[in-house]
Design a protein that fits this description.
By secondary structure, this protein is an alpha+beta fold. Helices cover 67% and strands 9% of the residues. It is built from 18 helices and 9 strands. The strands form 3 sheets. A 5-stranded mixed beta sheet has the order 4-6-7-9-8. It has a two-stranded antiparallel ribbon with strand order 1-2. A two-stranded antiparallel sheet has the order 3-5. The radius of gyration is 38 Å and the shape is elongated. The protein starts with a strand and ends with a helix.
Length: 545
């Protein structure tokens, strides 16, 4: 299961997989991150620990083990590796063995609870399904487990430790360290564990990413040492990363920023305001979370928009290819079918002429039906070609088109049928409109063709083309004096292919089409075209995209 991600530098994630030879990565990653966090917390300038290790273990369990249920052995082995790595990190930092054991059960249970809350692919979906899934994943994998670990760790410390520390200080230190560490480590760890290594290195190991990380580090050090409200300045390069880089780059930049804050605080480069009570450390650590969390949300939102845009572009390309194939098939089918249809029509007509007077009345009637059907089939093929042409001409640039020239061109294209039927055209002087010339010619051609077919038997067909200018609209009416159209024919355009073509051409121009029901005889088709620059601007923009 995979999905494309990224903008300009695409990347994709892969679904959860079973642990195969990667137990060492869990233990080693936890050991290194725990040891770094312990060293930072032991420095004189440190206010609270920045516990980074749990985020790695939570991400590993959530992505490498497909579901906690039914995987008891794998989960037990993973939690054992976490406990051993935690124990080794504390011992390497100089802690007593018994003091280390006090916190191990609470820490292991916190990782287990978080992995259970993120089971079922929720960790993987944090990067795939937008800001809501991302925020839900942080809630399940960062905040709630931190609260659970804080409660269990505080109870264990208060009941077993001999050190004289208020339980409030222990709880606050644990909660702050876990919360900040999980928020900055969990997204990065999920990226590391779900994105193929080659793609991850491609977006990380490049000059732009390295320059961004240096900028984040420099901004954090300078703002923390010399500028008021330092977190506002720290957010600037992170916002740039959220806007311009793939999310894995932002996750790495966020982690580096948090680690730089912890290092600068521990070494005394970033001197926090003096505090008189341990709870006041919240005013130092909480702004860091409130700076990093919105940036991560912005980054995942932008990444989701990039993914949706890429999927939409891919769908449009597929639709365009399918549409082009359909047009090509329509042209080929119409061209290939015209020859046998013309043959049927021609030979049936010759047979009717040669055998006139010798055919039985019933046979002559059947032959007449064959000829009429061939003529209808030929008209349907013409309509099919017109539909293909209509879609092709819909991308023609918009220009100022004289409708008199359009009507003349339509009559020229129908010259043979005009002479054959004796069509009489009564017309007014027509203005210019903004539109696509070929579509407008096709529109008038089909209206005139329909009028010729609607003529009464024994009378030459007549058509009147009139125009009415109204504010913002040009109304054109084409009236014939033949058989009246049904009132709902435009709602059921499949009954008349020529009217369906006309309505499509009108809608492409942003207009509307209706049937005038107040005509005493015949039919009057009315067309309203917009007379402003909005359609021209919109259509011109579409023609250039």
């Amino acid at each position: 299961m995979s999905a494309s991600f990224g903008w300009r530098t695409g990347w994709h994630t892969q679904g959860p997989s079973d642990p195969a030879g990667s137990w060492w990565a869990l233990g080693l990653g936890f050991l290194v991150l725990a040891w770094v966090s312990i060293l930072l917390s032991r420095q004189p300038g440190s206010v609270a620990s920045l516990w980074l290790a749990n985020g790695w273990a939570i991400a590993w369990l959530s992505t490498r083990v497909q579901g906690i249920q039914g995987r008891g052995v794998q989960v037990a082995l993973a939690l054992t590796a976490v406990a051993l790595a935690n124990l080794l990190a504390n011992l390497a930092a100089g802690d007593a063995f018994l003091d280390t054991l006090v916190f191990l059960p609470a820490n292991v249970l916190e990782v287990a609870v978080a992995a259970w809350l993120l089971s079922g692919g929720r960790a993987w979906r944090m990067l795939q399904q937008g800001p809501r899934a991302f925020m839900s994943g942080l809630w399940r994998g960062a905040l709630l487990p931190a609260v659970v670990g804080t409660v269990l760790g505080t109870l264990a410390f208060s009941s077993t430790s001999t050190r004289a520390l208020p339980w409030q200080d222990v709880a606050l230190t644990w909660l702050e360290g876990d919360l900040i560490g999980n928020v900055v480590t969990l997204p990065l760890a999920i990226c590391v564990l779900t994105i193929p290594r080659a793609e991850l290195l491609r977006v990380w190991v490049r000059p732009g990413t390295l320059a961004l990380l240096l900028l984040c580090t420099a901004a954090t050090l300078v703002a923390g040492a010399w500028l008021p409200m330092p977190f506002a300045y720290m957010a600037v390069p992170l916002l740039a990363a959220a806007s311009l880089s793939p999310f894995p780059v932002l996750a790495l930049a966020t982690f580096v920023t948090a680690l730089t804050v912890g290092l600068a605080t521990a070494l005394g480069w970033f001197v926090p305001p003096p505090i008189s009570a341990s709870w006041e450390s919240l005013f130092i650590n909480l702004p860091l979370v409130l700076t990093l969390l919105p940036v991560l949300m912005l980054g995942i939102s932008i990444e989701d928009q990039r993914r949706q845009r890429a999927e939409l572009q891919s769908s449009l390309q597929q639709l365009s290819r399918a549409h082009e194939g359909l047009q090509a098939f329509a042209r080929m089918a119409s061209h290939d079918l015209r020859e046998p249809v013309n043959t049927i029509a021609s030979f049936s007509q010759l047979l009717q002429q040669d055998e006139a007077g010798r055919l039985a009345p019933r046979s002559a009637q059947f032959l007449s039906h064959v000829q009429d059907a061939a003529v209808r089939m030929r008209r349907l093929l013409d309509s099919l070609l017109d539909h293909a042409r209509l879609d092709r001409d819909a991308t023609e640039p918009v220009t100022l088109v004289p409708l008199d020239d359009v009507l003349n061109q339509a009559l020229d294209s129908l010259a043979a049928r005009v002479r054959e039927t004796g069509l009489q055209v009564q017309r007014q002087a027509l203005p210019q409109v903004l539109g696509r010339r070929s579509l407008l010619v096709l529109l008038f051609q089909n209206l005139l063709s329909r009028a010729m077919k609607a003529g009464l038997a024994g009378e030459p067909p007549r058509v009147a083309v009139q125009v009415l200018l109204t504010p913002g609209r040009l109304i054109i009416s084409v009236r014939d004096h033949g058989l009246a159209l049904p009132p709902d024919v435009l709602a059921e355009s499949e009954l008349d292919a020529s009217l369906a073509l006309c309505r499509h051409a009108v809608e492409v121009h942003g207009g509307s089409m209706w049937l005038d029901a107040d005509v005493a005889e015949g039919s009057r088709v009315c067309i309203a075209l917009p007379q402003n620059n909005e359609f021209a601007a919109e259509a011109t923009m579409e023609s250039h995209t």
